[in-house]
Design brief:
2 copies of one chain form a homodimer. Chain A is mostly helical. Chain A is built from 9 helices and no strands. The structure holds a DNA duplex.
DNA sequence: AGCGATCTGTAGCGCTCGCTACAAGCCTGC
DNA sequence: GCAGGCTTGTAGCGAGCGCTACAGATCGCT
C-alpha cells in the first residue's frame, strides 16, 4: 500500500483499531502487524518489546476515551445524581461502545496482576470520567466531589453487571438510588 | 504420592487452588496438571477438552463463592443500605479474598466474549450475592428487592474501582450514598 | 484364569508465541 | 559517489500451547 515510513505514532491507531475489534488479551504480534500493514519484526523494531507496545496502546486508548467523553456525551448537566448515572449508563449501552468495554475488562483483569501500565491506563480513565461527572452533576449539588464519587461507583457497578449479563439488576439498582443529593 | 484413582471430582479442587493462585487467563494444561499431581494427558482424558475443564472449574468456583458468603460474612442484618455495602466492601478487602477477585476479573473479561460458561458462572455468583444482600438489608427496608439491587450495584462498582487502584474513589463513593432507604 | 474395559505413561504432532540473526535496501551528508 | 546510518524482509530459534497415537498397566467380571 502506502510505502511511507512507519513510526510508533502512525502505527498505534491502526493497532488500537485491531485491539478494539479483537480484544486486548488475545492480541499477538503477527495479527496486530497484519492489521497495521507491517510485520511482527517491525513492531518489535519500533516498540522494542510487546510490553512497550501494549503500554503505548493503553496510553492511546486512554486518550481516545477522554476524547469520546467530550463528543459522544451530552454537554448539559443532569437533573440529579441518579439521572447522571442513568445517562452515562444509557449512552454506553449503544453498540459502538461494546468494543471499548471488551478492552476495558481486559484492562481491569490486567490490573489484578499489578501491571503498572494497566494500572496507569485505568487510573487515567477513571480520573477523566470522575472529572466529567463532577461537571455534569446538578449545579446545586451540595458536595460535587463526594457526589461524583458516589455516581462513578454506581456507574461502574452497573457496567460490570451489564457485562456479565445482569443488566436487569443494574437498571433496577440505578432506578432505586436516591433521586436527589443526600 | 497417593496411587488412588482420579476423577473430575477429586481433581477440580486441586485445579481450582492453582487457578486461585495463578489466575484463570494464564492457566494452561501442563501447569494445572502438575498442581494436581497428574499429567496434561489425564486432564484431557477426564474432561475431554480444556473448555470443558474450565467450565467445570467455573462451576466449582461459583459453589465456593456461595459457600464463602455463608461463612466469612456476618449473619446479622445491616443498619442501612449504605452500611450493608460498606460491610461487604470492608470484608472483601481482606487479603484472603485477593485470589478470588483476580479470578473474578478474568471471568468478567471472559463474559465480554459471550462465552456461555463464563456468563453462567458470573450470573450464578451475582444471583447468590443478590440473595445474600436481600437477607442482610435492614429489616425495615421498604423495598428489599430494589434496595438489594442498588446495594449490589454500588458494591460491584466499588470493587472494580479498587481493582484498578482507585479504592479511594470507591470508599468516598460508598460514604456519600444515602444512609437510609430512599 | 482369562478376557474386555477402564485407566495411565511416553512421545510427539502441528501450531503460535515473543523475539532475534543476518543481510539487503534506502536515504542522507560529505 | 560513496560511506554509514536508519529501516525493512526472510528465516528461524526455543518455548509453550491443546491435543492425540500408541502401548502398557490395572481392574472387574465370569
Amino acid at each position: 500500500m502506502a510505502p511511507t515510513r512507519m513510526s510508533r505514532e502512525s502505527l498505534v491507531p491502526l493497532l488500537a483499531a485491531h485491539v478494539l475489534q479483537n480484544g486486548l488479551a488475545a492480541a499477538s504480534l503477527r495479527p496486530l502487524a497484519k492489521a497495521a500493514g507491517t510485520s511482527d519484526r517491525m513492531l518489535i523494531y519500533h516498540f522494542g518489546t510487546k510490553d512497550a507496545l501494549v503500554a503505548a496502546l493503553l496510553e492511546y486508548l486512554a486518550g481516545m476515551f477522554a476524547a469520546a467523553l467530550d463528543t459522544a456525551f451530552p454537554k448539559d448537566r443532569s437533573a440529579s445524581r441518579r439521572a447522571c448515572a442513568q445517562t452515562v449508563y444509557a449512552i454506553t449501552e449503544e453498540p459502538q461502545f461494546a468494543p471499548f468495554f471488551r478492552v476495558w475488562w481486559d484492562i481491569v483483569a490486567g490490573c489484578s496482576d499489578d501491571n503498572a501500565a494497566y494500572l496507569d491506563a485505568a487510573g487515567g480513565m477513571m480520573d477523566v470520567l470522575l472529572a466529567w461527572v463532577v461537571d455534569h452533576l446538578p449545579a446545586d449539588d451540595p458536595d460535587p466531589q463526594a457526589g461524583a464519587r458516589a455516581v462513578l461507583t454506581v456507574i461502574e457497578g452497573a457496567q460490570m453487571l451489564r457485562a456479565v449479563g445482569c443488566g436487569d439488576i443494574a437498571e433496577a439498582g440505578l432506578a432505586a438510588l436516591e433521586g436527589r443529593p443526600a
